[in-house]
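Input set for joint prediction.
Command: fold jointly, output tokens.
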Amino acid sequence: MSTRWYPLYQRGNPQLRVFLPNFWMKLIRPTPKQLKNIVHFQCSMEMTKCDIKNYLEKIYNIPVIDVRTKITMGKFKKEVGKGYVIKDDDRKIAFVTLPKNMSFEFPDIFEKVKDQDDENMKSLEEAKKSFKSFINRNKDRKDVPSWFTI
Amino acid sequence: MNKLFQRCASILNKSQNIYRNCSALVLKNEFHTTSTKFDLMEFFDSKKNWSETNIKVGRSWKLDELRIKSNTDLHKLWYVLLKERNMLYTMEHECNEKVRLFPNPERIDKVQESMDNIEKVVRERNIAYYKLETGETGERPVEDVINLIGLPEKYEKKEYAIPRFMNSRWVKPYLENGYINSVAVKKFLRLYKEKQYNEKRKAKNRDYNHVQQLLKRFPDLDMELLKSEYPDVDIEKAKRTKKARGHFMPKY
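tokens >
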């Protein structure tokens, strides 16, 4: 597939072997909530259900029971101030069913980042407080520079 | 159409091989392997990178580095890169969903560049092999054709389920009463040719006038240079015009 060009499949011919597939798949957070063994993917437009199944089984070694796909239309937007319409690309979304005993929960990637945000907010508030106290201290002598007193 | 993906060997482990180690001081490259895990978690970055704001990586693979690799190595590296790209796409998508900054988005470009380079090398080898064996490049054949609106076009040949003489849909527009001979196409071609002619004419006039102005401003110009710059302009004729004369008494 280095030339990115599929020969036509005719019945009886050997199945097409793809040596360097350039298909991409990305795991997306399911909306709304799904059963534990259902995973949502967004994948390249050219992929068929068979492709998706083989891709996951052969490259990622994930057992796949069933694949359903849908193509969602990209949003239409009007460029502000320009007047013309812009359309986002269409997306292919695959709903992959894993075996019953398997379960997958989409991880919360920004859990730690939230804690960091809280810490940042705390330090910011502290800084604000100290600045206010500094201003209060120097209420009566506005012209004196900050390094003048301890 | 069922496509069987080549099974990739257990060397497909995370990120160690993906970016080239580019530190010059390392004399001995130690071989690292992490335990291979085939899992859906492969779509995500390693956990320690989740809260990072700056993830440092090396550069992408260069063509010359890939040329000395064997075919199997390239094949394995392709799948490593493919997985890495999927991982980066997933993380980018999730970051966008959560309105966060995706750390170091240039990683995607680096992986993509490496993949492009691998493809280039594979293609080179394919062409070399085909030339040796068959005398042809083995690339997709390209044909010069006249397209439906009467313009020349490069057509990349492809396979059809039926032969050309049976393909009435393909033949129809090229017949005597077909689309290519219609009034609309003829009118389009006429106007198109007129436009092209006008562009050419205007360019010619523009050059001619410009040469006249140059001759006016710089009477001692190097004529050979001028001739090489504007080969289509008749310089002897331009010299004699009123525009090229300048505000001084003529020498002749």
